[in-house]
Design brief:
single chain, 6 helices, globular
Length: about 230
């Protein structure tokens, strides 16, 4: 690995450190409050506290992918980095971030389940897509890592569209996607699509999501190869 690529990875990691600290501080505080709330619901009939830990992380990854296009790319160019190294460095950063957050999140998930079980807090429940399959630590990690990488790649691509082609160019793409979505809902083929996924739902689906994420990230090279530090308006 070249020195420039190592420097980019170090920059991306240190740049994300502050937002990660804030995010995890808020998330862990919310988790603690929800567990305390579940404890007080023990004597309440049908009292139940449900928390989707992974959903919050998915949202964070989507926002991070979009912001990196606006912040990370121009700064990397100003540092003198080549477009190829930026492309490789951002991709490795996304992979590392997705894997690290999925491992951390699901380790916390397992610790919380163990703790609430030992304390008898039966009114607390963590929900995860893996519960539709085999709910193990490894399964949850794989699912979260694939979804996070997909969201990082998709939102990075969307962010690049806004960065390179401005509000008009990005708005046209978002508007087109929205029209396709509404048309699909009206025609019913989107509902059929999700029904088919649910009926054949297995781990293969998440491997396909990861593959789509890779394809989306490869597409970003089309814009990265000639991108400048000047964002379009």
């Amino acid at each position: 690995m070249g020195r420039q690529l190592k420097g980019l990875l170090y920059f991306y990691a240190t740049d994300a450190r502050y937002s990660l600290l804030i995010f995890w501080s808020i998330l862990l505080s919310t988790l603690l409050v929800s567990i305390v709330g579940a404890y007080f619901l023990l004597n309440v009939e049908n009292g139940q506290m449900t928390f989707a830990l992974s959903m919050a992380i998915y949202i964070y990854c989507g926002i991070t992918g979009f912001i990196q296009a606006k912040h990370g790319i121009p700064f990397s160019i100003k540092m003198g980095s080549t477009r190829k190294n930026i492309f490789a460095g951002m991709g490795l950063f996304f992979l590392g971030l997705a894997l690290a957050k999925s491992v951390l999140a699901n380790t916390i998930h397992s610790v919380i389940l163990f703790g609430t079980d030992k304390m008898g807090i039966s009114s607390y429940q963590l929900i995860h897509p893996a519960q539709l399959l085999t709910d193990t630590w490894l399964t949850r990690v794989i699912i979260d890592a694939t979804v996070m990488f997909f969201l990082l790649s998709f939102m990075f691509l969307l962010g690049l569209l806004f960065y390179k082609y401005g509000l008009l160019g990005g708005g046209v793409v978002v508007g087109t996607l929205a029209i396709i979505l509404l048309f699909g809902l009206a025609q019913g083929w989107i509902a059929d699509f999700f029904i088919d996924i649910f009926q054949s739902f297995d781990m293969t689906f998440f491997y396909e999501v990861f593959a789509v994420g890779i394809v989306l990230y490869v597409v970003t090279w089309i814009m990265l190869r000639r991108i400048t530090t000047e964002a379009a308006r």
